[in-house]
Write a structure and sequence with these properties.
By secondary structure, the chain is an alpha/beta fold. The protein is about 45% helix and about 15% strand. An 8-stranded parallel β-barrel has the order 1-2-3-4-5-6-7-9, surrounded by 8 helices.
Length: about 375
């Protein structure tokens, strides 16, 4: 969930037409976007999954944890489970969201599954349309396509992903690529367009079919404004850019134009949240994520450290300042403390949905956190 800058789209007409195409299902499109709160939750709750890999653990174990989280989330009334695209990060195993989502779809039956997000500049729009058309065919009516503008990695890795000459794309290239992706999903390039006879399959060329709702993701004003102008739902990365949350949501709501997709804004925020059986355990697990982020920001990415390693680490004053600031933005503690924190955040931001990311060293701690939050809100077993 990240982007930078605040430029307006160049290809406005084509982008707007593409967004309207996303609403071919009429009211059903909005129904696929809006969630339902369960128990005493103030808004629908969802899961944002980085498929984190702890020291001494494997990607296989991390992916098994993701399946367990998805099953738990489905059984307790979480609305959706999204997987984020990241690259060249040893502590994150979510480099291929479409592959992971296909696996989760095979192990669930009701929960919505999606990307939080696919970083569109890393991919050809046709390839994304084919991947998510396939997912829609595997799990009809359960797939979301969230799109981001950032690379989800460092510049060198982005260059390896995209190939030479594409790192310095103009700010308005993302809206053009978004419009192209939308046309592939709807199979409606106009006559005379170079891609008029190119079809994304699975897709509409094979007959009437549903298709994933598009979401724009961001951590600044660019995607907030664009999502509003196109009448699309918007997801903001509060979990790592909290200072910009309210300005971005205000910009989204002020820019919003009703569309065939939505008649009113719908905003989700990603929230770092971890509940544990004791405050001390919660703090120990959150510190592992803070140390991991410190190393990432220092150019030393690695596996998520163990709680013991994090507790023994000798932080410099500057490092301690960073870690304390990072942990202050994580809603953590007992189940009741996390519930109170989430209630307050929903009230302050007016978010329509909270998407919780529980980053910790071990999968057991992540799974337990989602269970405790559901218990705290009295979300029934379904």
């Amino acid at each position: 969930m990240s982007d930078t800058g605040d430029a307006r789209r160049r290809d406005g007409a084509d982008g707007a037409e593409g967004a309207e195409g996303a609403g071919r299902e009429g009211g059903a499109a909005g129904d696929a976007i809006r969630g339902t709160a369960h128990g005493r939750a103030p808004v629908p709750l969802s899961v944002l999954d980085l498929v984190t890999v702890g020291a001494g653990r494997t990607a296989h174990e991390a992916l098994r944890t993701s399946v367990a989280i998805s099953r738990l989330a489905e059984s307790r009334g979480y609305h959706r489970h999204w997987v984020a695209e990241h690259h060249s990060m040893p502590g994150v195993a979510s480099s291929s969201p479409a592959v992971i989502l296909a696996h989760l779809a095979a192990h669930t039956s009701r929960i919505r599954l999606g990307s939080g997000g696919v970083m569109l500049p890393n991919h050809a729009p046709l390839a994304v349309a084919e991947q998510f058309g396939t997912l829609e065919a595997l799990a009809p009516g359960r797939i979301d396509l969230g799109l981001g503008r950032a690379p989800g990695t460092d510049g060198r890795t982005a260059a390896a992903l995209r190939g030479p000459g594409r790192l310095d794309e103009a700010a308005d290239e993302f809206p053009r690529r978004l419009a192209e992706l939308t046309r592939f999903l709807d199979d409606d390039f106009p006559d005379g367009h170079p891609y008029a006879r190119v079809h994304a399959v699975p897709g509409p060329v094979q007959g009437p079919t549903g298709r994933p709702p598009l979401w724009l993701l961001g951590s600044s004003g660019f995607s907030a404004r664009l999502a509003g102008e196109l009448g699309l739902p918007f997801a903001y990365a509060h979990h790592f850019s909290a200072a910009g949350t309210l300005p971005a949501l205000d910009l989204y709501r002020q820019s919003f134009r009703p569309s065939a997709v939505l008649d009113a804004p719908y905003a989700v925020i990603g929230v770092a949240a971890l509940a544990a059986d004791t405050d001390a355990e919660a703090r120990a697990q959150v510190l592992t994520g803070a140390l991991s982020m410190l190393r990432l920001r220092s150019g030393r990415p690695g596996l998520i450290p163990t709680p013991e390693e994090a507790a023994a680490y000798a932080f410099t004053p500057l490092e301690r300042e960073f870690v304390d600031g990072w942990m202050a933005n994580v809603v953590h503690g007992s189940a009741e403390e996390v519930r109170e924190g989430l209630d307050g955040l929903a009230k302050r931001t007016g978010a329509d949905e909270l998407m919780l990311t529980a980053n910790a060293h071990g999968g057991e701690a992540r799974l337990r956190s989602y269970e405790l939050v559901a218990d705290a809100y009295g979300m029934p077993v379904r």
